[in-house]
Each structure stands twice: as C-alpha cells, then as structure tokens.
Amino acid sequence: MLETPSVNKPDSQSLRLFVTNIKQNLNSLKALKQPIESWDIILVYLFSKKLDYQTQRAFELEKSSLELPTLNKFFEFLEKRCTAFENLSVRETNSKVTPRHLGIQHNSVLLQDAEYVTVSITHYFI
What is the pLDDT of residues 35-45, one digit of tens each? Predict the structure, then answer.
C-alpha cells in the first residue's frame, strides 16, 4: 500500500485508478484476515498524502474538524470528486461549438436617400 502510485493530475481517470488500486490492496489484506477496520485514520492519512495538491486541499476543506475521517468518507469524497470531474468534462465537451459549415450571406439594404449598404451576416450551421 505504501507503493500505491500518487495522483499527479486532478481528473476522474487518475482518481478512479487510485481508488481501485487502494481497494485491491485492502481486499488483499482482508483476505489475509488483517484488522484493517481499525486502521482508518492511518490509511486516510497515508492515502491523502498521495493525492495532488488540489484534491488534498478540497479534502481538507470538506472533512469535519469534529470527527476523525474514515476510509468510507475518504472514498465517498473521491467518488464525488470523480463524478464532478466527469460532469464538467461532459459539459465542456457539449459547450464547444464546432461548425461543420460556415456560410456568409451578403444582404443589400436600401436607405431612404437611395444609397445601398452591404451587410455581412455570418451563419453557423450545426
């Protein structure tokens, strides 16, 4: 578990891989009948130090100062963060407008004293 790779960039893929790695290690320890249920504070401390700075900071701001953090709360935090990154990624992808065709239309407008003005209007066809 001490060899668990650190999270270098805050994104859902890195965090999910991190959580999967931790859970695999914990399951191995459970199979060896180790009392990991009483190790929460130590494990949360060790694993939180392997997070990128932004995620560490967010975890510190979210956890309660009145009670010790549990491993379940740590995993819940990471799951919420992954979901937030995924939702933001989808929203960012959907908000990018990439026109398949750019058409420019020229219209002439007749003014009162018989002068013509050409107006360019850009249309995006998606």
Answer: 999 999 999 99
Domain hosting 43: range is 12-95
Question: Which amino acid, one-letter code, is at 103?
Answer: G
Token pair in block for residue 2: 């001490």
Helix (H, G, I), strand (E, B) or coil at 65: coil
Total tally of structural domains belonging to the chain: 1
Q: What is the DSSP string of 57-76?
A: HHHHHHS-SSSPPPHHHHHH
Q: Is 51 domain-assigned?
A: yes
Amino acid in the structure at residue 89: S
Considering the domain boundaries, does residue 40 fall inside one? yes
DSSP state of 117: E
